[in-house]
């Protein structure tokens, strides 16, 4: 078994592309976009603990940078995180209490400032624990609406994930799996 590291994610993405296993690429590339390293660290060769090096392929670099800067932030804003937008339906149908609004704004800042964090596949519990202040409490009505919008949005995010990297949708990618069987 390969021990986990960011460099293993690079190897998985490269291997998937080299072997034309495109159905693996959306998840592999998303993992790279979520990693805790600076984007510029993905470009040069990186030395691993065992002395070998790994380099993200040019195609995967292009896909990651395009997704990082445009498609992934937009996708998660329009799916998993719609409830954070004060103009969204979910916000309009719930409370307008100042503390719910303040909590929503703080969560938005934590995700998008100073640079975007990709949380489109986080569960509600993961999101709440990692991006919301435990001292803050939204009203029960808004929590239930936000949680449901987040859950529904995750499904839409998953469906849109391949397109964020310039790949065909899951239905088309699934045909590859059928051919391998």
Task: Describe the structure concisely.
This protein is mainly alpha-helical and about 180 residues long. The protein has helices at about 5-20, 25-35, 60-80, 90, 100-110, 125-130, 140-165, 170-180, and strands at about 45, 55. It has one domain.
Question: Care to describe what's here?
Answer:
There is one protein chain. The chain has 181 residues and is mainly alpha-helical. The chain has one domain (6-180). Helix content is 59%, strand content 2%. It is built from eight helices and two strands; from the N terminus they run H-H-E-E-H-H-H-H-H-H. The protein has helices at 6-18, 25-34, 58-78, 89-92, 98-112, 124-131, 140-164, 170-180; strands at 46-47, 53-54. The protein has a two-stranded antiparallel sheet with strand order 1-2. It is globular, with a radius of gyration of 18 Å. The model has no long low-confidence stretch (mean pLDDT 85).
Record field, number of beta strands? 2
If strands are numbered along the chain, what order do they take across the biggest sheet?
1-2
Largest sheet: 2 strands, antiparallel
Shape: globular
- Write down the Rg: 18 Å
Low-confidence stretches: none
What is the residue-mean pLDDT, rounded to a whole number?
A: 85
- Approximately how much helix is present in the residues? 55-70%
Order of helices and strands: HHEEHHHHHH
Strand content: under 5%
- Class of secondary structure makeup: mainly alpha
Number of domains: 1
Count of DSSP-assigned helices: 8
């Amino acid at each position: 078994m390969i021990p986990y590291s960011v460099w293993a994610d690079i190897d998985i993405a490269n291997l998937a592309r080299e072997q034309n296993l495109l159905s693996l690429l959306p998840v592999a590339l998303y993992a790279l976009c979520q990693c805790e390293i600076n984007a510029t660290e993905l470009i040069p060769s990186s030395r691993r603990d065992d002395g070998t090096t790994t380099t993200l392929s040019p195609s995967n670099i292009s896909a990651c940078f395009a997704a990082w800067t445009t498609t992934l932030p937009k996708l998660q804003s329009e799916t998993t995180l719609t409830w954070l937008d004060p103009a969204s339906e979910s916000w309009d149908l719930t409370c307008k209490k100042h503390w719910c609004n303040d909590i929503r704004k703080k969560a938005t800042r934590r995700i998008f400032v100073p640079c975007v964090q990709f949380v489109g596949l986080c569960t509600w519990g993961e999101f709440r624990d990692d991006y919301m202040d435990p001292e803050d409490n939204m009203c029960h009505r808004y929590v239930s609406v936000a949680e449901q919008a987040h859950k529904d949005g995750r499904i839409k995010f998953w469906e849109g994930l391949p397109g964020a990297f310039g790949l065909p949708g899951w239905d088309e990618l699934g045909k590859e799996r059928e051919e391998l069987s």
